[in-house]
Amino acid sequence: MELRIQHLSKLYSNGVQALNDINLTIPAGMFGLLGPNGAGKSTLMRTLATLQDADSGTALLDNINIHEQKDQIRRLLGYLPQDFGLYPKVSAYDLLDHFAVLKGLDNRKQRKEVVEALLHQTNLYNVKNKHLGGFSGGMRQRFGIAQALLGDPKLIIVDEPTAGLDPEERVRFHNLLADIGTEKIVILSTHIVEDVADLCNNMAVINKGQVILTGQPLSLIAQI
Ligand code: ADP
Ligand code: ADP
Questions:
Q1: Shortest-distance atom of ligand 1 to CA 11
Q2: How many CB atoms neighbour CB 72 within 10 A?
Q3: 16 lines ligand 2 (CB under 6 A)
Q4: Atom 23 of ligand 2, nearest CA residue
Q5: SS3 call for 217
Q6: CB of residue 81 inside a 6 A radius of ligand 2
Q7: Which residues are within 8 A (CB) of 158 and not within 5 positions of it... i.e. 6 or more apart?
Q8: Residue of 23, 53, 96, 126 with fewest CB within 10 Å of its CB?
Q9: What is the pTM (predicted TM-score) of this model?
């Protein structure tokens, strides 16, 4: 499994060139996309998640084209946006179960197994009946990962997931991502160097819509 991003560009109607000829090859494993606020990370994440079209260029997940084969990509995709809403008066179990139904898990018994396994995996099983409105930032982000993992996606995109987490929650969140497995592609966008240094096998630095550096965190971070 490999994601190849080719000549991706996006000019917003306000004149901002958010993506300026992005080229990246992303193998399986944890990939860090590091860049300051306004670099174009969210625009790139939304484009890869098929929620927004680029003006030109494309990306291929193996041979599936993100612009031309959106349905196929969506079946293989888990996406945790930067700001996602949760229903405050619904329990973690019920909301995850609801999303599982939307993902097409029609069999009740099978759905229960999947939902409970994800709650265990994200360390939320003991709070599964609590309302999401009472969750801390870290619990919310872990819930977001549980939701993103529904349907066993092969490409997982997480946009600035550790912003606002305290150090303990950040470590917990890192451990969760590290466990997701190496056969999947996990793209983590962040402005926090430690996220990439601690977690990622490969990385790119982007600024002003352009890729400035690509390589492995250990050698690259020494250059920043
Ligand atoms: P496009 O060029 O893709 O049509 P638009 O410039 O029309 O995009 O903006 C799409 C949406 O994003 C609009 O609702 C707009 O209000 C909002 N938006 C505009 N500028 C920004 C910005 N700097 N950051 C985030 N959202 C913005
Ligand atoms: P990052 O995630 O790295 O902070 P973004 O992709 O959110 O970067 O933004 C890149 C640039 O595009 C910024 O200058 C931002 O203000 C602008 N931008 C983002 N979304 C929109 C939009 N919908 N319409 C117009 N400009 C936007």
A1: 2
A2: 15
A3: yes
A4: 12
A5: helix
A6: no
A7: 79, 80, 144, 145, 148, 177, 186, 187, 188, 189
A8: 126
A9: 0.88
Q: Is the CB of 37 under 6 A from ligand 2?
A: yes
Q: Give the helix/strand (H/E) hosting 61.
A: strand 56-61
Q: Which atom of ligand 2 is nearest to the CA of 37?
A: 4
Residue with the smallest CA separation from ligand 2 atom 25 is 12
The ligand 1 site (C-beta within 6 Å) comprises: 12-14
Tens of pLDDT, residue by residue, the chain (224 residues): 999 999 999 999 999 999 999 999 999 999 999 999 999 999 999 999 999 999 999 999 999 999 999 999 999 999 999 988 889 999 999 999 999 999 999 999 999 999 999 999 999 999 999 999 999 999 999 999 999 999 999 999 999 999 889 999 999 999 999 888 778 999 999 999 999 999 999 999 999 999 999 999 988 877 76
Can you tell me the distance from the alpha carbon of 51 to that of 98, in angstroms, rounded to the nearest whole number? 21
State the distance between the two ends of the chain, measured CA to CA, in whole angstroms.
Answer: 29
Ligand nearest to the CA of 54: 1
Q: Give the whole-angstrom CA distance, residue 144 versus residue 84.
A: 8
CA of 14 to the centre of ligand 1 (A): 8
Q: How far apart are CA 22 and CA 138, in angstroms?
A: 31
Query: If you take atom 21 of ligand 1, which residue's CA is the nearest one?
Result: 14
Residue 18: phi and psi, rounded to 5, are -75, -35
3-state SS string for 111-172: HHHHHHHHHHHCCCHHHCCCEHHHCCHHHHHHHHHHHHHCCCCCEEEEECCCCCCCHHHHHH
